[in-house]
Specification:
With 359 residues, this protein is an alpha/beta fold. It has helices at residues 25-31, 46-56, 73-85, 97-110, 163-181, 188-210, 219-238, 243-255, 259-274, 279-289, 294-302, 321-330, 341-353; strands at 14-17, 37-40, 60-64, 90-95, 114-118, 129-134, 137-142, 150-153. It has a six-stranded parallel beta sheet, with helices on both faces. Strands 6-7 form a two-stranded antiparallel ribbon. Bound molecules: nicotinamide-adenine-dinucleotide.
């Protein structure tokens, strides 16, 4: 028996999955009784948002293409004003975690429902977690009203995602599931989803690795990527995260390190830190990866792509490591192994230098 006591509560959201399912967006809005959609995207995905708006016709009342990482409050305010001005009755976020995060910021303030069309593997679409950055400080919280009402997973939208981002974003997804396996509030259902999410994502990355760099990624591999993201994102939405998410939060929020890449670099090390205190969870991570060790398996998954493998490559000065360790110790998340400053600093030093993880 893996978990002897648990409370399991699930959140209701509708998931529409499959290549070409973006075509169903208009029908999904109708089913929900929504008629005036404000499309959201980053500047880089403005063309995609404009195409989606054109396909929706009268149902689209505007496109706001200014989403950026970590949802600055100023951007959220302008987007909310735009929603008000266009009398939008919902926000349709087409993009990764940054765009979906902007939709959640609008929802939190105005109650407008969010429809998410994810184009990365970050998993925000399956969570009631929001984040807003004000005066350089990122605040996050949980609020059921920001959970997207409907999520459209269309693997065709991953065709433009650069391979490097597929790798980092895939490891970001695995991070949610791996921490879910030792979460104090997990259940046998979240454990099943976590293990399968890791297995699916790792399998997708192995398939990708075997493809020539210039080859188009087959649709079923892109489908596997979103399938894994859905499972891992669902775990993130359902249970508490630990040390790994705390450290990445500090690195992203205070040092503006890129989200997916930071998760990818840190994951082998945070898992190694927790391994002695979470042997059953770590055995499941290893089993899902088809490896002997979870931390070493994740480390192997990250290497050999030409993506950053160290905090140094991500631009973090070595002098910042003490502050990151301090931030984790000062306001820790629930974690299987106590957060101890000296041990954390050692872990961060290895991650900074790109060394293999060490338990
Ligand atoms: P992102 O949304 O910032 O996207 C990164 C870049 O990739 C952007 O320029 C985007 O336009 C581009 N992009 C996205 N999909 C693309 C595609 N298919 N083709 C080409 N370009 C594409 O990256 P992310 O990692 O998805 O999200 C990071 C943000 O999401 C962070 O702020 C993080 O805190 C947040 N997040 C929140 C949750 C949550 O539950 N609240 C979960 C995960 C991440």
């Amino acid at each position: 028996m893996e978990r002897e006591r648990f409370v399991h509560q699930w959140q209701a959201s509708r998931v529409v999955f499959g290549a070409g399912s973006l075509d169903r967006l208009g029908d999904e809005l109708k089913t929900l009784g929504l008629r005036r959609a404000l499309l959201l995207s980053t500047p880089e995905q403005a063309d995609l948002a404009a195409r989606v708006a054109a396909a929706l016709g009268e149902c689209a009342v505007g496109v706001f293409s200014q989403a950026v990482m970590h949802v600055p409050i100023e951007t959220a305010r302008v987007a909310r004003a735009r929603a008000l001005q266009t009398r939008a009755d919902c926000a349709v976020a087409v993009g990764g975690g940054s765009t979906i995060g902007l939709g959640k910021a609008i929802a939190r303030d105005s109650g407008l429902p969010v429809i998410a069309v994810p184009t990365t593997l970050a998993g925000s679409e399956m969570t009631p977690i929001y984040g807003i950055t004000e005066a350089g400080l990122k605040k996050t919280g949980r609020d059921p009203s920001v959970l997207p009402r409907c999520v459209i997973y269309d693997p065709e939208l991953l065709q433009t995602l650069p391979r490097a981002m597929m790798v980092s974003s895939g490891l970001n997804a695995i991070a949610h599931a791996a921490e879910g396996l030792y979460a104090h509030d997990g259940s046998p259902i979240t454990d099943l989803m976590a293990e399968e999410g890791i297995r699916t994502t790792a399998h997708m990355l192995s398939t990708l690795r075997a493809l020539p760099a210039e080859a188009a990624v087959p649709m079923d591999t892109l489908g596997q990527a979103l399938h894994g993201a859905w499972l891992c994102g669902s775990v993130l939405g359902a249970v508490a995260m630990g040390l790994h998410h705390k450290i990445c939060h500090a690195l992203g929020g205070s040092f503006n390190l890129p989200h997916a890449q930071t998760h990818a670099v840190m994951l082998p090390h945070t898992l190694a830190y927790n391994a002695p205190a979470a042997p059953r969870a770590m055995a499941r991570v290893a089993r899902a990866l088809g490896q002997v060790s979870g931390p070493a398996g994740v480390h192997a998954l990250l290497h050999g792509w030409g993506v950053p493998v160290s905090l140094r490559e991500l631009g973090l000065p070595e002098s910042a490591l003490g502050d990151v360790a301090e931030a984790a110790v000062r306001s820790p998340y629930a974690n299987p192994r106590p957060l101890e400053r000296t041990a954390l600093l050692g872990m961060l030093q290895r991650a900074w230098a790109g060394l293999p993880p060490q338990s």
